[in-house]
Write a structure and sequence with these properties.
With 259 residues, this protein is an all-beta fold. The chain has no helices and 24 strands. A four-stranded antiparallel β-sheet has the order 4-5-6-7, with no helix packed on it. A four-stranded antiparallel β-sheet has the order 8-9-10-11, with no helix packed on it. A four-stranded antiparallel β-sheet has the order 12-13-14-15, with no helix packed on it.
Length: 259
């Protein structure tokens, strides 16, 4: 499934031939319609999508296409959603990044009630600034890509403590710098992260923080010698198909999905 941010649509894409079908598109007459479709996660026969324009989490029935706002300022209690972005299921609840205020929320699907897991007042460590994607490590740990902070945070889900995996110094050219990280993925063993960073894909060893460049628009990134194939322009999301040793990367400007 692929979300179309500007169109507020959700597409199903056939991985064999690239054929696309629309599962959900905005209905101007519906109060539960998507306006902007950002993050998406699936549980059973429903998808859950973050809508940063309406500051809502919306469920989508994958069989009927029916959408329903399950949490927003009118549904559920607790801290408000503020430009929600990446989200994922954890222990029966949704973990949702608030890119507008740099917080991580936990949401009860049945009630829409929201509680703060990590923020500038919950948990210690450098603040989240503009959190994007989120993946789960062990049962008490999440990893969050943050384009505002220019790093990936490890977040303790019990106390909200935030630890940057890479200490960034953009003025030091000898150090690895996470420029505007977005899409984030983790392997089955949960020892390696994969992150989309400005037209490049890196792997990051969770234990050491060491990075490896997997793909770039350039055959030689040092000399900027270009590759001959279609280039990334604004890659955002990433999914790792570990069984078939391939990645799927969505690109906002190319309006496509790369393998």
């Amino acid at each position: 499934l692929v979300t179309d941010y500007d169109g507020g649509e959700v597409f199903s894409v056939d991985l064999k031939n690239g054929n696309r079908s629309i599962i959900s598109s905005p209905d101007p007459q519906s109060l539960d319609a998507l306006k902007k479709a950002s993050g998406i996660t699936i549980n059973a026969n429903k998808a859950y999508i973050s809508d940063p324009e309406s500051n809502s989490i919306i469920s989508l029935d994958l069989f009927t296409g029916v959408t329903q706002k399950i949490s927003n300022e009118f549904t559920g209690t607790g801290s408000n959603l503020n430009k929600p972005s990446g989200l994922i299921f954890h222990n029966g609840k949704l973990l949702v990044n608030n890119s507008g205020d740099g917080s991580l929320l936990s949401i009860e699907v049945e009630t829409g009630n929201r509680s703060v897991v990590s923020s500038n007042v919950v948990g210690s460590g450098p603040n989240l600034i503009s959190p994007n994607d989120i993946v789960l490590g062990n049962d008490k740990q999440a990893f969050i890509s943050d384009s505002g902070a220019g790093t990936i945070f490890s977040v303790n889900l019990e106390d909200g403590t935030r630890t940057p995996m890479i200490e960034n110094d953009p003025t030091d050219q000898s150090k690895f710098y996470l420029h505007n990280p977005h899409g984030l993925e983790i392997n089955k063993e949960k020892d390696t992260l994969y992150v989309v960073i400005y037209q490049r894909v890196y792997s990051i060893d969770i234990a050491t923080g060491n990075e490896t460049l997997l793909f770039s628009n350039y055959a030689d990134p040092e000399t900027f010698t270009p590759n001959s194939f279609i280039k990334f322009r604004d890659p955002k999301g990433i999914i790792y198909d570990e069984d078939n040793h391939r990645f799927f990367v969505s690109d906002n400007v190319n309006n496509g999905v790369f393998i």
